[in-house]
Amino acid sequence: LAASTGLGASGCVLFQGCPSSNMQTMQQLQSRQATARPVASVAPKAVRTHRMRSVAAAAPPKEGLTYKQAGVDIDAGDELVNRIKKMNPAMNTGFSGFVPFGDSYLVSGTDGVGTKLKLAFDMNKHDTVGIDLVAMSVNDVVTSGAQPLFFLDYFATGKLDVDQAEQVIKGIIEGCRQSNCQLLGGETAEMPGFYQKGEYDLAGFAVGAVKKDKLIDGKAIKAGDVVLAFKSSGVHSNGFSLVRKILEVAGAKLTDAAPWDAAKTIGQCLLEPTTIYVPRVVELHEKVGLKGVVHITGGGMTENIPRVIPKGLGVAVKVASYPVPGMFQWLQQAGNVPTDDMRRTFNMGVGMICVVDKEQVAAAQAVCPELWPLGEVVQGDGVTYV
């Protein structure tokens, strides 16, 4: 799968400032070690694992399903991040952390796939969740304007199934290919009794680089700037605890034809890999110059946009600027999910947004014709939907 990888205890790359677009100056060395010990990690993100039960269909609550009722408390996750900030004030509050390195910044990001893995287990399809794993980290890294350099993965399971693991790693390699970075190393942890049979968990870590004078930090954003959007490929890798709860109460099966796309099953649509936006965002920044970039992950536009917008400013999202994909419409209807909770849980069809000067909109669309004006920066606070 990756013929140029090695078997050492760590990986290395030759770093000479920021990477070129073709990455030909990078040298790689991959390692993967199988261990039989529990591995603990600490990150400012809540672990969200809830097994979907096979039960008879039931009507959703009259007040509607919410992410919290599905088992995920966003407010609790925010509180944990606030406590970590107090213990570690130097922690970055954007989508990635960065440190100076010569005339550049090294930029890092980490994430997992969440309970989307449960669908992969149920469908016995494991060759796409690796793409999700890479996407969730590299999409965070590129919000700083950085080109991802390398990626590390952590694969943990109770009993190693080599064929299954190979499919997962195949997806990781494909995700690295799409984002022009190298799979530099990984850890395979075999931990008997820790996971149910046939199940595993994934974590990923990406590091990139950007010249100091090209760092995107949002500080130049001002009222009147335009928010441009890239569409998502689907639910991506957030909100699946609520998705699975909706499927449960609706009595829907992963093998059923998707109500929003009769040519595919529900499972096929939901397992669609997270879009990797790295090449397009890097090109946009090089040719146009971006003031801010937002990866729409857990928390939706409501929670993520304020992470890069300066205080005293907000964003007015024009809801009529694009049609909400049928998948999200069905999820909302089937679960009777309040609109505010949909917007705070799912990406609602928007996977990445870029903030540019009003005068740069045409230039940005010339580089990426699929971009559309989603809204604008206004005086105020937070995100409003108009």
What does this molecule look like?
By secondary structure, the chain is of the alpha+beta class. The chain is 28% helix and 24% strand. It contains eleven helices and 14 strands. The strands form three sheets. It has a six-stranded mixed sheet with strand order 1-5-4-6-3-2. β2 (97-101) and β3 (104-112) form a beta hairpin. α3 packs parallel to α4 (162-178). The model is unreliable at 19-31 and 33-58 (pLDDT under 50).
Structure described in brief:
With 386 residues, the chain is an alpha+beta fold.
Strand order of the largest sheet: 1-5-4-6-3-2
Topology pattern, helix = H, strand = E: EHEEHHEHEEEHEEHHEHEHHEHEE
Helical fraction: 25-40%
What's the tally of helices?
11
Oligomer: single chain
Portion in beta strands: 15-25%
Report the radius of gyration as a whole number of Å.
21 Å
Termini Cα gap: 48 Å
The assigned structural class equals alpha+beta
Shape: globular
- Uncertain stretches: 19-31, 33-58
Number of strands: 14
| Major β-sheet annotation | 6 strands, mixed
**Mean pLDDT rating:** 86
